Amino acid sequence: MRNILDRTPARSMDDAVALMTAIDRRLPDDDGLKWFNRLYLNVTVSVREAAAQAAFADVPFLAELDIAFANLYFAAIRAAERADAAAAPSAWRPLLQARQTPGLARLQFALAGMNAHINRDLPEGIVQAFQKLGGDPISAEARRRDFDSVNAILERVEASVKAEFSVGVVGTIDRIGGQLDDVLAMWNVRAARHAAWTNAEVLWALDHVPLLRQRFFHRLDGLTGLASRGLLRPLVIATI
Q1: Which end of the chain is more exposed for a tag (fewer CB within 10 A), N or C?
Q2: DSSP H stretches of helix in 53-92
Q3: Does pLDDT of 54 surpass 90?
Q4: Burial class (CB in 10 A: 0-12, 13-18, 19+), 199
Q5: Where are the alpha helices (DSSP H) in 83-133?
Q6: What is the pLDDT of residue 160?
Q7: Which one, of 181, 190, 147, 189, lies nearest residue 162 by Cα?
Q8: pLDDT tier for residue 156 given thresholds of 50, 70 and 90
Q9: Which pLDDT belongs to residue 165?
């Protein structure tokens, strides 16, 4: 994938979509990264469509956030491609180290990527967007409402990819658990995005205390990695 990642950073939402599309086409189905990338691609395409229809109060902010956010993902996988998974941020290492591990479901890889990207990258992406366009995450109520409205897009994408991602063991679990599992999974994403904005506010407030900001972000990165390791444990269904 190095030749694809050499085209980063993305400078527009179109760039981001093109890069994710190229990654999706390059990765085989047995590569766990493919399943997070495909989910992320679907979300990014949907956000781009909503922005084109002026569905947000501040389209330039959502576009800038989307670009900054995507570039943090590209940077993580570029670091792993140039060296190995250990070179990536702590939050991303579990997925990048397990991407060829048998016995893990597509949905697990997608959730581990979402965990890394939302809990680690999203706060930093929010800060970068405000640094580029002005304002601050603490008082920007209209931009926060735009940010929260993306949750509905996530719900639609989650529903649209369910059949493709829920195969094998996960498909069996889904048939047993029904829609309760879907609701709980979506609630976790909403909670993570809510926490991400709060963590962006903390990073912003710590901007004038660089050492403390660095320590906070380092801890956030490490804890996110621990959560991903839990998401990537093999699933076992007891037989009767």
Answers
A1: C
A2: 59-82
A3: no
A4: buried
A5: 93-98, 106-116, 122-133
A6: 81
A7: 181
A8: confident
A9: 77
Could you give the CA distance from residue 113 to residue 107 in angstroms, rounded to a whole number?
10
Per-residue pLDDT band for 193 (boundaries 50, 70, 90) equals very high
- One-letter amino acid at 99 equals R
What is the sign of the dihedral through the CA atoms of 158, 160, 162 and 165? Answer: negative
Nearest to 120 by CA among 82, 92, 81, 150: 92
Separation in Å, CA 92 to CA 64, 76, 133, 145, 219: 22, 7, 28, 28, 14
Distance CA 200, CA 125 (A): 8
Distance CA 115, CA 220 (A): 12
Is residue 184's pLDDT more than 60? no
Token digits for 200? 């962006």
Separation of alpha carbons 71 and 208, rounded Å: 24
Q: How far apart are CA 156 and CA 172, in angstroms?
A: 22
The residue that leads in pLDDT, 174 or 205, is: 205
pLDDT above 80 for 173: no
Helix (H/G/I), strand (E/B), else coil: 22: helix
Amino acid at 17: V
